[in-house]
């Protein structure tokens, strides 16, 4: 029948696939003299910084963004063949896991340790925090008095029944918050808190912190827990907002913080340039911008804050080493799933 | 089909066929190897706390979307093919448009507009002083509704072609025997179109099985939630892969059901003839109009308006790289879609022309399963598989980096989408046509040029359109496997929307929809041309 055309089609397909493979391999030469950063931080947040680094040092940076877990799998699979020099991500859990999987090599902390406090760094110098994000309580100032608030744990009290909004437990920030709580309060107490939270929920957990804020604004609930930079963005859009920040757990272990951070990859081909980039990212100039760009806190506590961030007041931060937070995340998820926290 | 018409295989064809099948199915098969190590503690936890509820949720959602896409797809297809009303021809192709809207984009638009804090409910509360509110994320309804709006085009598209291909004399006979239009539809048209309806439904449902983005926005937990939890929370890629193979079994069951219900019956149609359409007037015409515009408004108009508003509010100059993203998106989508459709064409031509062993038939069917896998799992599967291949070669990154991995991932994921339309257009070719042509002395080349190509073109174009749009919208595989510098519109939309910056994500999302619209116009023009060149005029 049409065997001949079929044969042609087979041949065309195989040829196309072969040429594709060549196209694919030709990509390899592309990044030879560039510093390659795998990042789960979104491009629009960090590219301006890298551009400035390139301008100052002449070292070009190629950025490959992706989801943290997918990038970690990619790095594991690439092994020593990887072209990446630095892995940058948010959340202590991701950094801890990357370290635990042996993806990093120790960095030279001579300059970094003077800038970044120890609890924001890996004990073995495999990664360092670059910016700090605080996760704390927000409330509607017309419906809630700050005197009614104290800690994350207290939001499990009956008084908040039908008034609490939370982001989904699937988000890594909540996993870390609960992981820290397990370390401070123990698993039994934490499970009780989680069950209390769930029974206090005014609505099914939101997919995003910004939605938690919107729900409070609209009156669906009165209190919630968010990262402060989401609050900052809301303030930008609506300076008259009735929502206020409350620094949680000031009378106990302090407000929960997390980091975004980075480490040099074990199989980095541009080790020196990578070290240079990390030194630069922890330098005063970069730190000022790093926090300011996303309304986060600089990892270096001596850097003056962005005026808007400073207006939220100072607070006592939890100084639990973040590697511990990372280690306890799986335990935290188990508890949250048991407590039916969606 | 008469067996005498079928030619046996040459060795070359056999090897080539298996090469193609393996290329597409090995990344899927590699998931099966995950079963060598079982984390029983994690399985225990999952089955104690999650699995039962998640399976229940998944089946509710499948049922909801099956009903939603079925009702929408069939009714719309029937209205535009069997009725005549002002604007029918416009509606006929406009109704494809919702397919250009990524499901997760429609989800965040709906949530933004209709949720408790959104403008609609705020209006009722603040201006009309109505108390309370509705959480549209509760239950299965919201998610099922949104998915039905985005996925109904699968059913619509295939059913419409089936209705068009039905010889009108069947329904005319039913009508002349006194059946009402509805009865004629129910007893004649619909049963004849059943394979098309089910093929459309199974595509829609596989898409539901694989979805993670849409359900995540509504925080509606499905089976994919367990897969992601195993991977992201418990760092057990094995358990995630094991759970994925269960998802494949559900998908395989869907496909087997489709085959079973089709049985050995043949659905070859006669030659399409001009349809006589019921002329709708007055109330009926207005009601039809209202229905069609309502669907279009919700599925395409609303996101268009909301995204435009957001894009306008947040507009701070064009990103100079926008044209680069458009270029990347288009190159990837069109090139991969062409390849995917080409392979689907070859596989179907093989099925059509050769007696196949059970194993061969099974192998070909297996290649369509990738559509039910969550994109990220599939992407990791492809990646790990290609690293293995590279490792066997010489330890370089030959296949696993660059575009190759990405294109393979697209082919594995969207083979089912290409396969369906191509398969159904092969089904409209009665073996007697090609036999007759051969008896009249047509050479194979002539046969191909004058019979197959014209009859297949509409199906090929449909497949090309669907796969191209699907690849344009695809996120997880593109995100993980794209080579340096190959950002696409979908990647940008996602990156901006995850930070809660829906406003900033609006522009790339709009461009994505615009490309979908342009693609639709092109395909329609090509299709119209192909129709004119049909071998037998009517």
TrEMBL record, chain B:
Keywords: Cell inner membrane, Cell membrane, Membrane, Transmembrane, Transmembrane helix, Transport. InterPro entries: MetI-like, MetI-like_sf. It is a multi-pass membrane protein. Residues 55-256, 326-523 form the ABC transmembrane type-1 domain. The chain crosses the membrane at residues 58-81, 93-114, 139-158, 196-220, 240-260, 281-305, 325-350, 362-386, 398-420, 451-472, 505-526. It is found in: Cell inner membrane; Cell membrane. It comes from the Bacteria. GO terms for cellular component: plasma membrane. GO terms for biological process: transmembrane transport. Belongs to the binding-protein-dependent transport system permease family. PANTHER family: FE(3+)-TRANSPORT SYSTEM PERMEASE PROTEIN FBPB 2 (PTHR43357:SF3), INNER MEMBRANE ABC TRANSPORTER PERMEASE PROTEIN YDCV (PTHR43357). This is Iron ABC transporter permease. It comes from Hydrogenovibrio thermophilus.
């Amino acid at each position: 029948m049409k065997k001949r055309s079929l044969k042609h089609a087979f041949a065309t397909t195989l040829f196309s696939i072969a040429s594709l493979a060549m196209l694919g391999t030709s990509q390899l030469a592309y990044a030879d003299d560039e510093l390659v950063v795998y990042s789960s931080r979104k491009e629009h947040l960090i590219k301006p910084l890298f551009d400035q680094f390139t301008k100052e040092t002449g070292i070009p940076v190629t950025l490959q963004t992706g989801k943290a877990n997918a990038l970690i799998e990619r790095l594991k699979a690439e092994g020593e063949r990887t072209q990446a020099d630095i892995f940058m991500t948010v959340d202590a859990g991701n950094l801890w896991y990357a370290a635990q999987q042996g993806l990093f090599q120790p960095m030279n902390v001579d300059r970094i340790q003077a800038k970044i406090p120890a609890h924001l760094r890996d004990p073995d110098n495999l990664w360092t925090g670059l910016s700090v994000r605080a996760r704390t309580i927000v409330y509607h100032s017309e419906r809630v008095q700050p005197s009614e608030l104290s800690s994350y744990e207290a939001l499990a009290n009956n008084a908040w029944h039908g008034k609490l909004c939370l982001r989904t437990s699937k988000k890594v920030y909540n996993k870390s918050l609960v992981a820290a709580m397990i370390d401070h309060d123990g698993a039994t107490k934490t499970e009780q808190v989680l069950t209390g939270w769930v029974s206090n929920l005014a609505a099914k957990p939101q997919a995003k912190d910004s939605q938690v804020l919107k729900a409070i604004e609209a009156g669906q609930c009165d209190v919630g827990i968010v990262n402060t930079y989401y609050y900052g963005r809301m303030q930008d859009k609506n300076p008259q907002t009735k929502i206020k920040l409350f620094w949680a757990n000031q009378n106990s272990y302090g407000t929960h913080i997390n980091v975004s951070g980075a480490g040099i990859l074990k199989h980095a081909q541009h080790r020196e340039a990578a070290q240079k980039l990390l030194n630069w990212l922890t330098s005063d100039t970069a730190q000022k911008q790093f926090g300011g760009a996303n309304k986060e806190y600089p990892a270096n506590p001596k850097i003056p804050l962005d005026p808007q961030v400073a207006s939220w007041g100072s607070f006592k931060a939890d100084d639990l080493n973040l590697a511990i937070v990372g280690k306890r995340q799986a335990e935290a998820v188990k508890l949250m799933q048991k407590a039916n926290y969606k | 089909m008469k067996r005498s018409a079928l030619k046996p295989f040459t060795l070359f064809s056999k090897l080539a066929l298996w090469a193609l099948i393996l290329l597409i199915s090995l990344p899927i098969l590699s998931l099966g190897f995950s079963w060598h190590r079982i984390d029983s503690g994690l399985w225990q936890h999952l089955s104690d706390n999650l699995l039962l509820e998640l399976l229940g949720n998944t089946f509710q959602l499948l049922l909801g979307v099956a009903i939603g896409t079925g009702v929408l797809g069939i009714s719309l297809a029937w209205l535009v093919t069997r009725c005549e009303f002002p604007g029918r021809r416009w509606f006929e192709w406009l109704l494809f448009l919702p397919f250009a809207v990524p499901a997760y984009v429609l989800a965040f638009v709906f949530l933004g507009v209709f949720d408790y804090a959104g403008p609609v409910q705020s209006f009722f509360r603040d201006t009309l002083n109505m108390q309370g509110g509705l959480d549209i994320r509760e239950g299965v309804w919201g998610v099922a509704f949104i998915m039905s709006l985005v996925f109904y085009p699968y059913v619509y598209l295939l059913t419409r072609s089936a209705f068009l291909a039905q010889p009108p004399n069947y329904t005319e006979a039913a009508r002349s025997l006194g059946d009402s239009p509805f009865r004629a539809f129910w007893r004649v048209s619909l049963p004849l179109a059943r394979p098309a309806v089910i093929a459309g439904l199974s595509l829609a449902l596989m898409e539901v099985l694989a979805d993670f983005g849409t359900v995540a926005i509504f925080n509606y937990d499905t089976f994919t939630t367990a897969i992601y939890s195993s991977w992201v929370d418990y760092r057990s890629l094995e358990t995630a892969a094991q759970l994925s193979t269960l998802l494949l079994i559900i998908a395989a069951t869907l496909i087997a059901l489709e085959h079973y219900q089709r049985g050995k019956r043949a659905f070859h149609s006669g030659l399409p003839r001009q349809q006589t359409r019921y002329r709708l007037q007055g109330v009926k015409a207005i009601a039809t109009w209202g229905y069609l515009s309502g669907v279009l408004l919700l599925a395409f108009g609303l996101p268009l308006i909301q995204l435009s508003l957001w894009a306008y509010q947040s507009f701070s100059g064009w990103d100079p790289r926008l044209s680069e993203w458009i270029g990347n998106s288009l190159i990837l989508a069109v090139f991969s879609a062409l390849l995917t459709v080409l392979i689907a064409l070859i596989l179907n031509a093989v099925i059509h022309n050769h007696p196949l062993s059970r194993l061969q038939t099974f192998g070909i069917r297996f290649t369509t399963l990738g559509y039910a896998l969550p994109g990220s799992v599939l992407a990791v599967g492809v990646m790990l598989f290609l690293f293995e291949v590279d490792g066997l070669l010489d330890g370089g990154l030959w296949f696993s980096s660059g575009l190759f991995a990405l294109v393979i991932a697209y082919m594995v994921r969207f083979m089912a989408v290409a396969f369906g339309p191509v398969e159904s257009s092969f089904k409209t070719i009665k073996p007697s046509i090609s036999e007759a042509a051969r008896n009249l002395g047509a050479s194979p080349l002539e046969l191909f040029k004058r019979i197959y190509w014209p009859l297949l073109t509409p199906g090929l174009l449909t497949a090309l359109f669907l796969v191209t749009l699907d690849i344009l919208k695809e996120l997880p595989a593109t995100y993980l496997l794209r080579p340096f510098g190959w950002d696409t519109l979908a990647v940008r939309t996602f990156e901006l929307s995850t930070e809660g910056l829906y406003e900033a994500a609006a522009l790339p999302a709009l461009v994505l929809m615009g490309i979908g619209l342009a693609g639709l116009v092109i395909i329609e023009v090509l299709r119209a041309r192909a129709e004119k060149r049909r071998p037998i005029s009517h």
